[in-house]
Amino acid sequence: MGGAAPPEQDVSRGIDGMANVLSHELEEAISDPDLNAWFDSSGQENGDKCNFNFGATSTCNANGLCTTAGTSAGAKYNQTFGSSNWMLQQNWRNSGGGACAQHL
Questions:
Q1: Domain extent for 82
Q2: Which residue pairs, CB below 8 angstroms and at least 24 apart, start in 76-82?
Q3: DSSP assignments along 43-71, one per residue
Q4: Domains in the chain: how many in total?
Q5: Element (H, E) at 80
Q6: Best label site of 36, 50, 55, 57, fewest CB within 10 Å?
């Protein structure tokens, strides 16, 4: 395979990306189920305001829950569910002056 990434690593990145998009869209659907609720002056919903903002992250290491490929690549994550690490964007919190925050 030459310099290609291990298949496990490629799959993990794809799943992280899919989970991130799903999280973004679910957050918007929950906060705006009728498509007539909150958005800012630019037309952005809460997920859009924090798109690709991941906040504090951790790096996979041999003592963590990461796959071997993730550990080798120094993969980053910001959420742990059960025995899996994920990289999910933050979402807009309108209270307290507004900011991107990690909350599920």
A1: 7-90
A2: 78/54, 78/102, 79/104
A3: S--HHHHTTT---S-EE--TTSS--HHHH
A4: 1
A5: strand 79-81
A6: 36
Model confidence pLDDT, tens digit, residues 21-71: 998 999 888 888 888 877 889 989 989 999 999 999 988 877 767 777 777
Q: What are phi and psi of 57, to 5 degrees?
A: -125, 160
Task: State the alpha helices, DSSP H only, in the chain.
Answer: 7-31, 46-49, 68-73
Task: Tell me the pTM.
Answer: 0.73
In terms of Cα–Cα distance, which of 9, 48, 42 is closest to 27? 48
Six token digits for residue 86? 């994920």
**pLDDT, tens only, 77-90:** 898 888 788 889 99
Asked if residue 66 belongs to a domain, the reply is: yes
